[in-house]
Design goal:
With 504 residues, the chain is mainly α. It contains 20 helices and 3 strands. The longest helix has 36 residues. The protein binds magnesium ion (MG). Magnesium ion binds next to α10 and α11.
């Protein structure tokens, strides 16, 4: 009897803490969103202090002794918990056990250096001067390695970093997935290169006034199911999505007058992230289960909408007439020309503009470099050379300057080692889920052609969104598809789509 009542108390502590953490998280997100969207530039110092204060509050709540004791007791009595409480315990315990091992001085030092380093990176990128950025990167790397050692690992220190973005993912698992993906990607690229069909790519002018782009992307987002009553859209330099609360999930866009497809695809991408967040079961709101499973699963949702749907001929069968009606200057654009334009496969230097086929090679290069860097096999100063030679080897092209090479991405400058692989994991999960979705909805393409996106969203809601973080990434993959994550589904998708386009 006594044990039961104490178990009840421990559960209360777990649930309450997770709710409070979630509330603080929403406040932090709002501060961050405002910083990117509306804050005047002189507000940066004050905002930095506010953010640091609230972050510390979050951290202290997470590492509280009271929570630690309850976690320990609940873990001894796991069998008595419901499925949701077990999952809640797993999530909070995962974060707690990591956070308590990292000394707060290291957290503080890292936060400070990351802010300065990001500024140094911006300047270095502008001037294409890696040397000026290298000392900052070395400092971050040193602190990250210290964290890896404090947290501890079984096989590789890189696992600690991966786990921040993709819980339970390991270098060993990626070493099984990525080489196959790389090999198959190169095969597809060769097939495209050697195809006998002469593809005449007509140059189309994609420029569109920004107010028209706003109207069109709004139309698309609404049609896909993004709820503007529980969100909003603003303009920023680099688009992102922010969860503030269950009924407040905001997206951002950047418009390029000369090419409407950029704002369109990033709107669909961010809309895909937001749809995931807007689709939670009400029963789990404001708990540690009310979140995406991992960066990879999150990215699978955005990429399904952006690429599998938004770059498909079925999507354009429905939307091209609407685009032409809204902007009659596009009336002569042929569907096949537009599809070739937005799906053209061509090795390029910049990851964010890469096509669906070559994209994963950009990621694999970063993954290989990161793990060697963490293991000390390569030094920070070697990065430009290693980068360039891998680009040459995998993509057949070499950047002329570091701003188009090793300095192109912000991630390392703010300590996000282990983040890149989640982009490709997103593609792979998307491939495997989409395969199952098409089995479950055999006339999916026909429905998309007719503008029925609700069937697709409902499938995602029922299979993925509503569960939040009840399941882990590998659990949900198995639950939906019956199989572990396998690159073959994504590879098959690429072969089918690009085979049809390039005639192989
Ligand atoms: Mg994304």
């Amino acid at each position: 009897m006594k044990r039961n009542s104490s178990l009840k108390q421990d559960l209360e502590i777990l649930r309450n803490t997770s709710k409070e953490l979630k509330l603080i998280h929403g406040i932090l997100s709002l501060l961050g969103w405002d910083q990117e969207v509306y804050m005047p530039s002189k507000g940066v110092l004050g905002r930095g202090k506010q953010t640091a204060f609230i972050s510390e509050l979050y951290h202290n709540k997470l590492i509280s002794k009271e929570l630690g004791n309850s976690i320990e007791k609940l873990e001894d009595n796991k069998d008595k918990l419901t499925r949701n409480d077990k999952s809640l315990l797993r999530n909070i315990s995962h974060d707690y056990k990591k956070a308590v091992k990292i000394p707060s001085e290291v957290v503080k030092e890292l936060a400070e250096i990351e802010t300065i380093s990001q500024k140094a990176w911006e300047k270095a990128k502008k001037e294409s001067d890696f040397k000026s950025f290298a000392p900052y990167l070395s400092k971050i790397l040193k602190l990250k390695l210290e964290i890896c050692e404090k947290v501890g690992y079984k096989n590789s220190p890189y696992d600690v970093l991966l786990d921040d973005f993709e819980p339970y993912m390991t270098e060993e698992k990626l070493d099984k997935l990525f080489p196959k993906l790389r090999e198959e990607t190169i095969k597809i690229l060769n097939k495209i290169k050697n195809n006998k069909i002469n593809i005449v790519k007509k140059k189309i002018n994609l420029s569109m006034p920004i107010d028209k782009q706003k109207q069109f992307t709004l139309l698309v987002l609404k049609k896909l199911g993004y709820d503007f009553g529980a969100g909003r859209r603003d303009e920023v330099e680099h688009p992102f999505t922010t969860w503030i609360s269950a009924n407040d999930v905001r997206i951002t866009t950047h418009y390029y007058k000369e090419d409407f497809t950029k704002a369109l695809s990033s709107s669909i991408h961010e809309g895909g992230h937001a749809l995931y967040e807007q689709g939670r079961d009400k029963k789990i709101l404001l708990t540690g289960l009310d979140e995406g499973i991992s960066f990879g699963i999150h990215e699978s949702q955005s990429r399904t909408w952006e690429n599998f749907v938004g770059r498909s001929k079925y999507f354009w069968k429905y939307f091209l007439p609407k685009l032409k009606k809204l902007y009659p200057k596009f009336k002569s654009i042929q569907e096949k020309d537009l599809l070739l334009e937005i799906n053209e496969v061509k090795p390029s230097l910049i990851r964010i503009y890469a096509d669906e086929v070559t994209y994963n090679l950009h990621i694999i290069i970063r993954f290989e470099i990161e793990k060697d860097l963490i293991k000390g096999k390569i030094k920070v100063n070697d990065l430009p050379e290693v980068w360039n030679s891998k680009m040459k080897e995998y993509l057949g092209i070499k950047p002329k300057k570091d701003s188009e090479g090793v300095l192109q991405d912000v991630h390392w400058s703010c300590g996000k080692f282990g983040y890149f692989p989640t982009y490709s994991l997103g593609n792979l999960y998307a491939g495997q889920f989409f395969y199952k979705m098409k089995k479950d909805i055999p006339d999916l393409n026909k429905r998309i052609e007719k503008g029925d996106f609700a069937c697709l969203l409902n499938w995602m809601r029922e299979e993925i969104h509503k569960f939040g973080h009840i399941y882990t990434a590998s659990e949900i993959c198995k639950k939906i598809t019956g199989k572990d994550l396998d690159a073959k589904y994504f590879v098959n998708y690429l072969n089918e789509k690009y085979g049809e386009m390039y005639g192989f």
